[in-house]
Fold this sequence. Notes:
By secondary structure, the protein is α/β, with parallel strands linked by helices. The protein has ten helices and nine strands. Helix 1 (11-19) runs antiparallel to helix 4 (57-71), helix 2 (25-34) packs antiparallel against helix 5 (78-96) and helix 2 (25-34) crosses helix 6.
Amino acid sequence: MMNNSTGSTPNxxxxxxxxxxxxxxxxxxxxxELYGNSESAALPSTAELQRRLTLGxxxxxxxxxxxxxxxxxxxxxxxxxxxxLASLAQAxxxxxxxxxVVEVVxxxxxxxxxxxxxxxxxxxxxxxxxxxxxxxxxxLFTEGARELLKELARAQIDRGVRVMLIGNRMDQCLPxxxxxxxxxxxxxxxxxxxxxxxxxMAALHAKLLICDNDAALVTSANFSYHGLxxxxxxxxxxRSAAIARLVELFQAMIANGELKxxx
Length: 263
């Protein structure tokens, strides 16, 4: 355990920065939220870190142990740690704000041991870190994507994030979407692309997750169980100001009637 310091930068902040250095800025923000506002609240458990940060057991266990060390420092409060985590995340975001950051992601059977982030874990992480708006665009949405869609519902209901779903013939998805969003909650905006009478084979085939106008997951994976977990799919997570152009593209498609709203 690190001892606190009387210098201008307490040792515990350096220690905290070191133990979260392997996390993304989005994961650090989620971790900050886990500290909440109550000093009597329990520290994040290994299981909670695994679930909320999509970490492996070893990484979550190590992080939980180090966080207990930090919290044992005399006079250090949950609020202190929460502010420090939020500051670390913001500092990292500022350093990369003007850079184009690209990360390769994939879907593959777990037995293959692929050494890159998974499509599902990356999408969940992005949704949990979103602060303003999430747009999910897909060729296909099925019951197999229920857990991902539940994350969207939580983002909208718990944090007030605007959610928009865009896809083909989305009226077919309404029954299971209704089951995910509670009846008394605000529903997401849903837009559909119907069959083109002049070319029935033409379709909206894009698969995208766009968060806060500056981050996108561009993937070959459909939003289905096999697309998110068992197929072999490749994608990239991109952070760039150019993502706003993608949002403008779909806004134009809505404006000209190519995409139509569902009630």
